[in-house]
């Protein structure tokens, strides 16, 4: 029987200014639609909040005006009307490291996106079983498996979004830097192939240490002459997902509404949740700020220790990465209201790469959002200054690694 998409359950939605009661349009709801009308109606899915002040954006192309943004919201409303909320599956996504702990659930969640036409699963380990299994889900995308380096070119051809969770995970006692020597080489080689076979794709790096693997990827793409800083992302969404969850629990807030920007990097103290920018606004005691900040920074270790030697966060990571992929696809599809935190090339601080909220568009990062970094509390300002030396060292380590190993042009 043919699989007919039907209506109602949205797996990926984005909050918009409209959700805050403004007259701006409500976000569109993407989704796989299931037949039960009320079933899971309130499921928030891969939701990213996107309420940012229009006047506070800077972009690679200079400042955006409020008028330009309002125009983009208006065109979004027009687009929604035209689309009748039925997205077209038309994007190709590749997952590199798809047989792994993150790769498998991530691939499943991407298979649920109505925007994906082709899902390519690649691993050096056998990924045929994962692909066969996922391919039986009655959602629009075609799933193909690719095993081993010789199949990588075909995997990457014409792909729009490449997600990279390939590598080794952290074991108890290991720091993210311990992973460096293994994962640095894996990311270098995979990104080198991306440069050759899909140089225009959005490249989303999950492999740790993200603070170093993203600069490595940038150097490799530069060496290949195809670096576009707007299209290279370190996936830090898990930090935001954790911050939202922990803050909602602590302050007894409705989880779906909570949005905490997380800036800096993606390891230990370089992860800086900006609790003062929590939406809806919430007040915290000094003890709560310290406790929540430390918990968000060490949440990965919480999972590593609970898994007792069998790996690091995989399921929550897959959820977070799927949300980032979905946001990217919506941006590619012309949604003018997509914001996520990500570790990207940045001029918001004196560091060359920095995680902040960014506006995503068809060409990648359309704007970095500086407003979260304005009016920080003393605690946040001190934490920001304190994280810079460590983040700088990790970035430089990545750059040095890539520069001493010139990739074949
Ligand atoms: N960004 C984040 O927030 C975040 C969170 C958790 C884990 N991670 C990182 O994600 C990575 C993957 O974690 P995991 O738990 O899925 O590990 P895993 O060992 O379960 O899976 C990794 C997969 O990568 C594959 N792989 C290894 N080398 C490869 C290569 N050269 N090409 C293609 N595939 C290759 C392996 O065969 C395996 O299937 C680790 O580096 C981990 O530290 C990142």
TrEMBL record:
The keyword NAD applies. GO terms for cellular component: cytoplasm. InterPro entries: Lactate/malate_DH_C, Lactate/malate_DH_N, Lactate_DH/Glyco_Ohase_4_C, Malate_DH_AS, Malate_DH_type1, NAD(P)-bd_dom_sf. Pfam families: Ldh_1_C (PF02866), Ldh_1_N (PF00056). SUPFAM superfamilies: LDH C-terminal domain-like (SSF56327), NAD(P)-binding Rossmann-fold domains (SSF51735). Residues 236-401 form the Lactate/malate dehydrogenase C-terminal domain. GO terms for biological process: malate metabolic process; tricarboxylic acid cycle. The keyword Ribonucleoprotein does not apply. Keywords: NAD, Oxidoreductase, Tricarboxylic acid cycle. Its EC number is 1.1.1.37. This is malate dehydrogenase. Residues 92-234 form the Lactate/malate dehydrogenase N-terminal domain. GO terms for molecular function: L-malate dehydrogenase (NAD+) activity. It catalyses: (S)-malate + NAD(+) = oxaloacetate + NADH + H(+).
């Amino acid at each position: 029987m043919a699989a007919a998409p039907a209506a109602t359950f949205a797996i990926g939605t984005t909050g918009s200014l409209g959700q805050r009661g403004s007259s701006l349009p409500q976000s569109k709801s993407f989704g796989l639609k299931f037949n039960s009308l009320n079933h899971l109606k309130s499921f928030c899915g891969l939701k990213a909040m996107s309420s940012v002040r229009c006047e506070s954006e800077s972009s690679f192309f200079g400042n955006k005006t409020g008028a330009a943004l309002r125009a983009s919201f208006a065109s979004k409303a027009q687009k929604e009307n035209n689309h009748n909320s039925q997205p077209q599956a038309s994007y190709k996504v590749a997952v590199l490291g798809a047989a792994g702990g993150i790769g498998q659930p991530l691939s499943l969640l991407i298979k649920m996106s109505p925007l994906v036409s082709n899902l390519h699963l690649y691993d050096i380990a056998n990924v045929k079983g994962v692909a066969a299994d996922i391919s039986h889900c009655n959602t629009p995308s075609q799933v193909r498996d690719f095993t081993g380096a010789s199949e990588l070119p075909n995997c990457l051809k014409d792909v729009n979004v490449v997600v990279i969770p390939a590598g080794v995970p952290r074991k108890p006692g290991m720091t993210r830097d311990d992973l460096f020597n293994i994962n640095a080489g894996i990311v270098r080689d995979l990104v080198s192939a991306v440069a050759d076979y899909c140089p225009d794709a959005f490249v989303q790096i999950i492999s740790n240490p993200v603070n170093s693997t993203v600069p490595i990827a940038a150097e490799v793409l530069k060496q290949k002459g195809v670096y576009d800083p707007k299209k290279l992302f370190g996936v830090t969404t898990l930090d935001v997902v954790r911050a939202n969850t922990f803050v909602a629990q602590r302050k007894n807030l409705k989880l779906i509404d909570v949005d905490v920007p997380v800036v800096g990097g993606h390891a230990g103290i370089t992860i800086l949740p900006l609790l003062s920018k929590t939406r809806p606004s919430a007040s915290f005691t000094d003890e709560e700020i310290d406790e929540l900040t430390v918990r968000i920074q060490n949440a990965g270790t919480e999972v590593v220790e609970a898994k007792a030697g069998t790996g690091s966060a995989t399921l929550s990571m897959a959820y977070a990465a799927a949300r980032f992929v979905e946001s990217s696809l919506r941006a590619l599809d012309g949604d003018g209201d997509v914001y996520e935190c990500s570790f990207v090339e940045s001029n918001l601080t004196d560091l060359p790469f920095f995680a902040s909220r960014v506006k995503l568009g068809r060409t990648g990062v359309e704007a970095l959002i500086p407003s979260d970094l304005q009016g920080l509390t003393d605690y946040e300002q001190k934490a920001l200054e304190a994280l810079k030396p460590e983040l700088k060292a990790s970035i430089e380590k990545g750059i040095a690694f890539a520069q001493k190993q010139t990739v074949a042009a």
